[in-house]
Amino acid sequence: MSTENWIEACTSEDVEVEDVIRFDHGDRTFAIYRTEKGDYYASDGYCTHERFHLSKGLVIGNIIECPKHNGRFDIPTGKAKKVPVCIDLRTYPVKLEGGKVFINVE
């Protein structure tokens, strides 16, 4: 992985346990998650069904539920888990350094 593709998204304290926040960078938008175990993940920000932003969704364990039609994705893998979603989310590597959350957008 190239070091220049790591982007600071937020601080580790910005994302509560079992929560999701929005992060915009340039013309792209992402969702940054923290699961019930305290692990951080990142994906594209919009649901693949009707492009509703996932930051308004509900995190349940390792699942993000879209608030518009209740479609669900597996947070670590982006795998579509419940209709109406049938296209997986793109996910991105995450690292923590000095209390900050970085995502690799390559």
From TrEMBL:
Residues 7-103 form the Rieske domain. It comes from the Bacteria. Pfam families: Rieske. Keywords: 2Fe-2S, Iron, Iron-sulfur, Metal-binding. Its cofactor is [2Fe-2S] cluster. InterPro entries: MocE_2FeS, Rieske_2Fe-2S, Rieske_2Fe-2S_sf. GO terms for molecular function: 2 iron, 2 sulfur cluster binding; metal ion binding; monooxygenase activity; oxidoreductase activity, acting on paired donors, with incorporation or reduction of molecular oxygen. Belongs to the bacterial ring-hydroxylating dioxygenase ferredoxin component family. PANTHER family: FERREDOXIN-RELATED, RIESKE DOMAIN-CONTAINING PROTEIN. This is Rieske family ferredoxin. The lineage of its organism: Bacteria, Bacillati, Bacillota, Bacilli, Bacillales.
